[in-house]
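Input structure tokens:
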């Protein structure tokens, strides 16, 4: 009976948590603010206790779980509607570099963020020299936004007055051997066209196609399920590099 009770408590708790998570939004763990992260930990702890602690009544625990989610939603809504309240609840971004100069006072306000952390985050962004940075801002979710000085940014087509064409999202026409009929119809194509195009590339079986994407310029990218990688001896490659 104990196992059955844990089974149904866990099942119901899991379903409730999924429903509540869907209601609360789509943010990833890496995108959570400190306030949202604390709520997430508390909700997870409450859900686990609800599953295995048989001495605790199930319905009151479920009510507590729901209230934590509800209060989080209310405070987030209030933080979005009121900028002043949002700064109190969620905090605000911190400028760490301005015109190539590291702002030590702002950095000192962050107890868990050191100079090494800043330099490491810059390297991840491809910046190895802080003097190249116009602004570096630590966002609410812990991400570091970096704006390079204009002379260190990659050249864009508009800088050279080069014309560009629209690039939208590629459509999935085949996914894991199955036709995505909705996308095929939306592109104004049919299954006969798809199979004929695949046969022109020597592909007779749809099941051999792992992924097929149609780009906005009409090109069809096809990836087969059993690709044979080129065999490269990494050790020989390394020895050739050493000789250069």
């Amino acid at each position: 009976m104990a196992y059955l009770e844990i089974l149904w408590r866990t099942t119901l708790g899991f379903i409730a948590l999924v429903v509540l998570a869907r209601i609360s939004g789509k943010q990833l763990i890496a995108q959570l603010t400190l306030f949202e992260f604390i709520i997430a930990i508390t909700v997870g702890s409450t859900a686990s206790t609800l599953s295995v602690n048989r001495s605790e009544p199930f319905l009151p625990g479920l009510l507590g779980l729901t209230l934590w989610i509800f209060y989080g939603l209310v405070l987030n809504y209030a933080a979005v509607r009121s900028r002043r309240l949002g700064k109190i609840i969620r905090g605000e971004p911190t400028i760490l570099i301005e015109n190539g100069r590291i702002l030590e006072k702002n950095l000192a306000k962050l107890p868990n963020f050191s100079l090494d952390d800043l330099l490491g985050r810059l390297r991840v962004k491809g910046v190895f020299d802080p003097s190249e940075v116009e602004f570096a801002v630590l966002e609410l979710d812990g991400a570091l936004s970096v704006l390079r000085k204009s002379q260190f940014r990659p050249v864009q087509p508009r800088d050279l007055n080069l014309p560009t064409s629209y690039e939208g999202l590629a459509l999935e026409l085949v996914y894991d051997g199955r036709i995505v009929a909705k996308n095929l119809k939306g592109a104004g194509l049919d299954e006969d066209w798809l199979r004929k195009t695949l046969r022109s590339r020597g592909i007779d079986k749809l099941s051999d196609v792992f992924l097929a994407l149609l780009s906005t310029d009409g090109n069809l990218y096809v990836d087969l399920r059993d690709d044979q990688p080129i065999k490269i001896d990494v050790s020989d490659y390394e020895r050739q590099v050493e000789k250069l």
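The two ends are 71 Å apart (CA to CA). Strands lie at 94-98, 101-102, 133-138, 144-148, 171-175, 178-179, 209-214, 220-224.
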